[in-house]
Amino acid sequence: MIKVSRVQLDYSKVPKGTVALFFGAPKSGKTTAASSWSEQGTDKCLVIDTDLGTDYVEGVNRIIVRYVNPPLRLKMDKDSKVLLDKNGLEQWEEVPLEERVIYDTQGEPMNAYALSEVLEALFSGNEAISDFDTIVLDTIDEINSWVEKDVLASRGLDAMGDGEFGVDWSDSKKKVKRIIELLKNYVKEKGKTLILISHSKQRLEDKKPVMTADLPSGLANVVAGICDIIAYIYIDEKGKHKMSFKGTNSQQFGSRMKPLAGKILDLGYQFYKKEITNYVQDK
């Protein structure tokens, strides 16, 4: 039997299961704001950091990610000779986590994870990361660049666009979409928040500059369709950090939540929460 559900909105509190995109220029405050986007600030936010953008964010909880999947290397014997399988083909193995090392601002070593490893731990309820209210993917454009490299390698292409009938663009878009949808389903089920971060790029439309997320147009449209809110993060002429939901037909930012639609706010969770909870629902 089919059951019909009826949406009842309650803006007396911040909605859960929200998927957001923050995009803007470097150093505009995207990561700093997202890393504390919770009732309990940084304590309940986890940043999946792909480009060390959190190096100077005080108190941030982060996991360093440098690959989509664990990197591979040729399998060697004790004499450093490449091992072959029964068909005479070279054998490959994953590079162990303890050998995947990068360094922080103090020269201290940190493990570099693959995104697939983090997602597996997250979805399996790993206690180390399952207690956070907000998951931040910083940045989605970096993830996309890794996926594109994997697609090129798998198809033997030199550059995106070389594939017949755009098959390379299609492959890449589907893979990134799948990653986002997995995270979206997770936060919807658990009542958490997902924030995707992207750098911005400028393009001309009718000879006017338009700001968009730094993603291929097809993927940008997919991301826009998935997200509940899209905020353009910038610094105004007075030096204040702002977040704009005042999009246009050509500028993909805005909000499905009425309290935020068409608004420009000071950047920060407290201003976001205040705008939502002070809203008076139309009768």
Structure in words:
The longest helix has 24 residues, at 167-190. Strands 1, 2, 3, 8, 9, 10, 11, 12, 13, 14 and 15 form an 11-stranded mixed sheet that branches. A two-stranded antiparallel sheet has the order 4-5. The chain has a two-stranded antiparallel sheet with strand order 6-7. It starts with 18 loop residues before the first strand and ends in a 6-residue tail after the last helix. By secondary structure, the protein is an alpha/beta fold. The model has no long low-confidence stretch (mean pLDDT 92). The chain has helices at 30-34, 115-123, 140-155, 167-190, 217-226, 269-277, and strands at residues 19-24, 45-49, 62-67, 72-74, 92-94, 101-103, 109-111, 113-114, 134-138, 193-205, 208-213, 229-235, 241-244, 254-255, 264-266. The protein has a domain at 19-61 and 132-277: Rossmann fold (3-Layer(aba) Sandwich). Helix 3 crosses helix 4 (167-190). It is globular, with a radius of gyration of 21 Å. Helices cover 26% and strands 25% of the residues.
